[in-house]
Amino acid sequence: MSPLNLQIDRVRDLLNGVHDPIPTLGGKSALLKTLIRIFDHCIYEHDLNIFGDLFLGGNRFHTHYKNYRIDRIGNELDRGLLSFYRAIQDPDQFDYLTRGIGAFSRPRLVTKGDFEDFKKWRRDSSTDAVDAAILTYVVSKYSRAANRQDFCHLKAGEGISISNLKRKLIPLTKIYHDVQFLNEGYDKPFKQLMRRKDALIYLDPPYLTSVDNYTEETEGYEDKYSTADHIIMLDRVVSESCKAKVIISNYFNELYFDYVRRGLLYCYFVGMVHVSSSGTGRKRPEFIFSNYPIPEYVLPHIPHDFRYYF
Ligand SMILES: C[S@@+](CC[C@H](N)C(=O)[O-])C[C@H]1O[C@@H](n2cnc3c(N)ncnc32)[C@H](O)[C@@H]1O
Prior knowledge:
Elements: H1 3-16, H2 32-45, E1 50-53, H3 60-64, E2 71-75, H4 79-89, H5 91-102, H6 112-123, H7 129-141, H8 153-158, H9 162-175, E3 179-182, H10 187-193, E4 199-203, E5 208-211, E6 214-217, H11 227-238, E7 245-250, H12 254-261, E8 266-274, E9 283-290
Parallel strand pairs: 1-2, 1-4, 2-3, 4-7
Antiparallel strand pairs: 5-6, 7-9, 8-9
Helix pairs in contact: 4-5, 4-7, 5-7, 5-9, 6-7
The structure holds S-adenosylmethionine.
S-adenosylmethionine binds at residues 24, 26-28, 55, 57-58, 60, 75-78, 185-186, 204-206, 221, 223, 225.
EC number: 2.1.1.72
Catalytic activity: a 2'-deoxyadenosine in DNA + S-adenosyl-L-methionine = an N(6)-methyl-2'-deoxyadenosine in DNA + S-adenosyl-L-homocysteine + H(+)
Family: Belongs to the N(4)/N(6)-methyltransferase family.
């Protein structure tokens, strides 16, 4: 994105008063508008009542998309991350959360050794949930490409501005008030929602990618999501008992496209995204796979270079 566009985006965010809650790997920022248009169309066209984002990650959709006619569910396996969203929702936890992050906000206070301890403690089930949320935010802020794994001296050197953090999180206390946050594997809420004709389920699992007909998992996620996990998920989506509308985000890959070839899923180009771990500004095309047809007028144009995918 050009510096001017970046500036315009920041101004727009400030005007809306809504910022992403936490930096995360695999964020969907560049595709938000397109995906929201697709969700909105699906909800109105099919008269739906409930929307579940079952791999929340950075929780972009419940942050920027509010459709007043639907109930909202957000699910994430990572306990620290989910506890962070719950703590924003709960006025009793909110103060403790921001004060806790404040304790680690001074530039250069957190060392690589501390960071490695925080990584372990935030995932330890004996750590209190709000403490895990605090550590998760600190580890996200001080890691390279927000991957919560590799310490970044530069970011730890900058510290965290607590007044900016509060300005960013306070609007979210209201925005999240009706979201039911769950800390499960996606399959638990999926099995409930899939039977409902009035549900839209959005699935954004750690991606698969195909190189020279060889499909592999993308790296960087602490909770591994194997090719076998993808197959189980896809088979659930295309099964007879799945009555809900389902949209799955992924890169183009042979495993998913095989379901398209067999007429079980639809595939659509939704935009170009930065490969966050590349550090080079490299972009690649993103796709959605759905179990219902999406009309062309809600989709972006396919750039000429990517027409060969179809
Ligand atoms: C690609 S990211 C989601 C990105 C998110 N849509 C965003 O815009 O920030 C995938 C997320 O799924 C979570 N995850 C991994 N395995 C999971 C599982 N079995 N069930 C639920 N969430 C899982 C990871 O912790 C990660 O936060």
